[in-house]
Amino acid sequence: MSIQDLKQKFIEKYGEDGVEAQVFYAPGRVNLIGEHLDYNGGYVLPAALEFGTTLVVRPRSDDEIHFASTNLPYVATLMVSEIGKLKSNEWIDYPVGVMVELQKKGTPVTRGYDLLFHGDIPNGSGLSSSASLEVLTAYALLTLEGAETDTVEIALLSQRAENQYVGVNSGIMDQFAVANGKRDHAILLMCDTLEYELVPFVTGAYKLVIGNTNKKRGLVDSKYNERRQQCDEALAILQKEVPSLSYLAELKPEQFEAHQGKIEDETVRRRAQHVVEENQRVLDSVEVLKNNDLKQFGQYMNDSHTSLRDLYEVSCEELDVMVEEAQKIPGTLGSRMTGAGFGGCTVSLVHEDDVERFIKEVGEAYKTRTGLDGEFYVCGIGNGVEQLKGAN
Ligand code: ADP
Ligand code: MG
């Protein structure tokens, strides 16, 4: 939907009242490489996508906050004084959770607003429509309240909203990427310390093709907890060899090579191997991206998938099939699962001339082999949260 159409919808819904509505935008995100490293003290390398969530918002002269979204039928009105009093278990919990955090931070919402959200991110596929919605709300309200918009702070408070108010236990990567993304850049991020660097990633004639397996995720939580335990087990053993070690991902591949024999459980050893090598791949990716060597980066993407499939064992038949078919297309530089695994999306780097063929051939083969309809989204790397001033 164009901004003009969205503003038209806003007027149809809330009417004209002489005050100009403002438009804000926050992207979705994809993790390019560095999977299951965040809880192991390693780096991730996400990027903001070129599609996301848009908000048309207008201050009101009373203290009623009106919520609506073009994506979902549920609408609500809250008084400013009612913020956070009652959880609805509806989508508004995300923006309301953000308002609760704004209050706690001492920059509360002080008056009513008319809000209309519109999202282009498929919900629940792992492209972080929830983080997009949170960061968008925080940035827009802070701007309209005349408060400072520090995007690192916004990421943190949005994460707290999701963890505490919505009750979903997620790391900081999603909100951080949505808040701090930049066109033609990936974000090298250490999730623990929030140390980060914008890494030039000019995709040029290549596109990111995100493939949604549409496989319903099962067992994610129990498998996730099991992986964490296995990593803790490996860490405890390796700390006896390398006393200064605080996290698995701090180990260099050579150090791991030297000490891995101490890990008797072969499964645990393979989990640790993934963590150490994947972290090194992220660092190597940054180097090759700085030299604009997309081909080598593509190779690292492929290697990452193999490691997640064989060593960390968090892939699944559907992800493997989609990646395998993607890698067969001549214009594909690399392809891998992205996110926690067991379903969700793949990300591939594909020459623009081959994108159409990619979608057709990978889609058909995926359907034949799994019985599922995959979906594909083509995009470049876009900006993080921003006000769309020209749109006003
Ligand atoms: P993901 O973040 O992977 O897309 P989540 O389950 O974490 O999936 O978040 C999806 C939820 O976020 C949706 O079910 C809905 O409640 C909310 N949401 C996301 N985008 C919008 C939107 N544009 N309008 C209303 N609610 C949205
Ligand atoms: Mg989410």
UniProtKB/TrEMBL annotation:
Protein family (similarity comment): Belongs to the GHMP kinase family. GalK subfamily.
Source species: Paenibacillus donghaensis
Keyword match Secreted: no
Ranges for domain GHMP kinase C-terminal: 287-367
Domain of life: Bacteria
Keywords: ATP-binding, Carbohydrate metabolism, Cytoplasm, Galactose metabolism, Kinase, Magnesium, Metal-binding, Nucleotide-binding, Transferase
Active site: D174
Enzyme class: transferase
Chief place of localization: cytoplasm
Binding site for substrate: E35, H36, L37, D38, Y224
Subcellular location: Cytoplasm
Name of the gene this protein is made from: galK
UniProt: Mg(2+) binding residues: S130, E162
Keyword Cell inner membrane attributed: no
Stored PANTHER family: GALACTOKINASE-RELATED (PTHR10457:SF7), MEVALONATE KINASE/GALACTOKINASE (PTHR10457)
Protein name as annotated: Galactokinase
Function: Catalyzes the transfer of the gamma-phosphate of ATP to D-galactose to form alpha-D-galactose-1-phosphate (Gal-1-P).
UniProt pathway annotation: Carbohydrate metabolism; galactose metabolism
Enzyme Commission code(s) on record: 2.7.1.6
